[in-house]
Amino acid sequence: MKIFELENISMAAGFLLLMVGIWGIISQRNIIKMIISFSIVDTSIHLLLVSIGYIRNRTAPIIGEGVTKTDAATQITDPVPQALVLTAIVIGVGITALLLTYSLKLYRHNRSLEINHFNSLKW
Amino acid sequence: MIQIILLIVMAVIMLVMAFIAIHHKSLQVAVIASGIISLFASVIYIFLAAPDVAITEASIGSALTVGIFFYILNKIRHEDIKK
Amino acid sequence: MKILRNSALLLIVGFMAWMMIHLYGQYESRDALNPVAEYYAVNGPEETGAANLVTSIVVTYRGLDTLGEVTILFLTAAIIGLLLRTEKGSRKKSVRESSEFLSTASGILIPVITLIGIYIFMNGHLTPGGGFQGGAVLASSFILVLLAISNKRIGHRLLDYTEAISGISFILLGILGILLAGGFLDNRILPLGNFGTLFSAGAIPVIYSLIGLKVGAELSNVILELNQIQGEEEEL
Question: Where are the domains of chain B?
Answer without folding.
Answer: 2-82
